[in-house]
Structures are given as structure tokens and as C-alpha cells.
Design goal:
Elements (H helix, E strand, L loop, with lengths): L1 H14 L2 H10 L6 H13 L3 E4 L6 H11 L4 E5 L7 H4 E6 L4 E6 L6 E5 L6 H13 L1 E4 L2 E4 L5 E6 L12 H4 L4 E4 L5 H11 L13 H12 L5 H15 L13 E3 L3 H17 L7 H12 L4 E2 L1 H5 L4 H11 L4
Parallel strand pairs: 1-8, 1-9, 2-5, 5-8
Antiparallel strand pairs: 3-4, 6-7, 10-11
Helix pairs in contact: 3-11, 10-11, 11-12, 12-14
């Protein structure tokens, strides 16, 4: 077994070399925002979608566009507004009067990488049109179903400041996002670097670092990463602790949790941990990998009670308590 893991580790080290090139190309445009960059890379390798919450102007759109440039993928930005229709996302039938026939005009969802900007500003039927494509990886226009690209990733943003005129995502739809990342303002040093890069007429551009075919191959390789049974049990304990905190001596947080994380959290945590190990050039998952992705996986899957809100307790406080209480293998 040790020799197999050693061989796998060498293979992963070799196959993940492009991650360094990808980071270098993105660093030409994006300053700092390590959490966002890591989340995008994990989502890309783990074939998951990412939800980002942060105030405007923190390079969310630029980061996604830069990633698409660096892997030569098609990119579409959809600005969600209250007057948006499902057909604006999925596409529709167009009548051709010369030929007296209908032809399909595919919508922006057929790109490789989608930025759903301020997803909570569009009505539920528009949100569900996007989220159906995310889950099923296909779109139905009229009576025909069309498969979405093999490399298909959605990054959705939400603005935490203004809630007036928004349509909050239902919990079942939020659960479809593998990761939820909260991003904050850059440091003074980082912002000074941003000023150097962006306060000029010529914007920096990322070059191609890797092909989409190599990304798809990397996903298959990442699936091979070794996860010990102790790590799997550790993940199960973490997720179950969100539903039954008393089993781990966490009775104090029980009144704050309305609903715990779904089984999707268990699956996504293993997949994301494999991807995190891959982007760090390792052929096996460690408890540190679980801790690195755990907050982003569970942040949006723990529903709080009114008591938690009254006491200003957030899901991150609960996750931190769980990580401190559950024994590390």
C-alpha cells in the first residue's frame, strides 16, 4: 500500500505542475485574494460550483475572467436583474420567416465558465433555470435537451450590503454550490499593488497556462488521490456533529443549529479535499486538507436558529467549535 501511495504521490506531483503556471498567470492580474483563487482552483479540479459573497469591487468578476483566459475557456457574465427571464440564460427558439421554421439560439449558459453576478437579484424561476443546468448539466429548450460542455463551472456572487429588492436563494438551491467563499478587503500592501497594475490605460492580461483537455484529465487524476478510512470517518464525524452536537460534547451549540449539513457536505468535502491535495501536489488527503476546505463546504449548509442570530452567532463560530471538538485522526 505504501509503495502504491508513493507512486501515486509522484504522479500527482508531475500532473499538477500546471497549477503553478496557472497561479503565475492569474497573479499577473489578480493581487492577493488567496481564498478566492484557491476556491476557484478547487472548484475547477473538483468539478464543483462556487458561491462568493463580498462587497463590490473586490475583483470577483476579474478573477473568473482571468481564470477563463488562463485555460482558454469560453466565459460569460450574466448580470442578474429583476426583469431577467429564464430564456435569457438558457436560450430560446427564433422564428425564421424566410424558411418558415424555428432555429435554436443557445443562451450564455452554454459557455465553459459562467459568472452569475448578484444571483439573488433575479426571481426564483430565473435562479432555478441556472441551478437546473448546474445540477443536471443539461438544458431543455422547447422539447429538445442539450448537453452542457464537459468543462462547465458556475461562480455566483452575492452582495451582502444591500438586501432590498433581492430574492434570497432557497436553502436547497444554495446546497448545490460546492463552496461558499467570503472575501474581504485587501491589505494596504495589496491595494498599493492593485493601484500599480490597474491605474493605467493598458490592463494586464493573463496568458494561456493550460488547456481545457488537461483540466479534464487532471480531474480524473485527482479522483485517484488516496483517502484513508480514518479521514473518511473524520469527515463523517464533522458533518454529523452539525446535526447532533451532543455526541461530541457540544451541547452549548445545539440551541443555535436549526438544521445541520446535508449528506452533500460529506461528499463535497472529500471531493474538495482531493482537489486541494492535488493543487498542492500531493497524492493523499490529510486532516489539514479537510480543515482547509471545511469552512467553505459547511458555511452555507448550517441553518441557524433565531437564538443564534439574537446572540450574534454565525455559522463560522459553530464550524470552529466543531473542528475544535472533533478528534483529529
Amino acid at each position: 500500500m505504501d509503495s502504491e501511495i508513493s507512486r501515486l504521490n509522484q504522479k500527482i506531483q508531475q500532473d499538477s505542475l500546471f497549477i503553478q503556471d496557472l497561479r503565475k498567470e492569474m497573479a499577473k492580474v489578480i493581487v492577493g485574494q488567496e481564498d478566492l483563487i484557491n476556491g476557484l482552483l478547487v472548484g475547477l479540479i473538483a468539478n464543483g460550483h462556487v458561491l462568493v459573497e463580498g462587497v463590490p469591487g473586490l475583483a470577483k468578476t476579474l478573477a473568473v475572467k482571468t481564470l477563463a483566459q488562463a485555460i482558454s475557456a469560453s466565459f460569460q457574465r450574466i448580470q442578474f436583474t429583476p426583469d431577467l427571464l429564464p430564456a435569457d440564460i438558457t436560450g430560446t427558439l427564433i422564428f425564421n420567416p424566410k424558411e418558415s421554421s424555428f432555429s435554436v439560439r443557445k443562451g450564455p449558459i452554454f459557455a465553459n465558465i459562467i459568472l452569475a453576478d448578484e444571483i439573488n437579484r433575479a426571481p426564483a424561476k430565473v435562479q432555478s433555470a441556472l441551478l437546473e443546468g448546474m445540477q443536471e448539466r443539461q438544458v431543455t429548450i422547447s422539447d429538445t435537451t442539450y448537453k452542457l460542455p464537459d468543462l462547465f463551472m458556475v461562480l455566483a456572487t452575492m452582495n451582502p450590503i444591500e438586501q432590498e429588492g433581492t430574492y434570497p436563494l432557497p436553502e436547497a438551491q444554495v446546497d448545490r454550490f460546492m463552496l461558499k467563499i467570503n472575501i474581504t478587503y485587501p491589505s494596504k500592501t495589496e491595494e498599493a499593488r492593485v493601484l500599480e497594475l490597474m491605474a493605467c490605460q493598458t490592463m494586464p492580461q493573463a496568458g494561456k497556462a493550460v488547456s481545457m483537455e488537461e483540466i479534464l484529465k487532471a480531474r480524473q487524476t485527482a479522483d485517484l488521490i488516496y483517502v484513508d478510512d480514518k479521514i473518511k470517518n473524520y469527515v463523517l464525524d464533522l458533518v454529523i456533529a452539525t446535526r447532533d452536537p451532543g455526541k461530541h460534547g457540544l451541547d452549548k451549540i445545539k440551541p443555535w443549529i436549526n438544521y445541520g449539513a446535508s449528506p452533500r457536505a460529506t461528499i463535497f468535502m472529500i471531493q474538495a479535499a482531493k482537489a486541494y491535495a492535488f493543487i498542492n501536489g500531493r497524492g493523499y488527503v490529510t486532516p489539514e486538507d479537510i480543515k482547509a476546505v471545511g469552512f467553505d463546504i459547511m458555511r452555507h449548509r448550517i441553518l441557524l436558529t433565531y437564538e443564534a442570530e439574537a446572540e450574534n452567532i454565525g455559522s463560522e463560530d459553530i464550524i470552529k467549535s466543531i473542528f475544535e471538538a472533533v478528534e483529529v485522526p
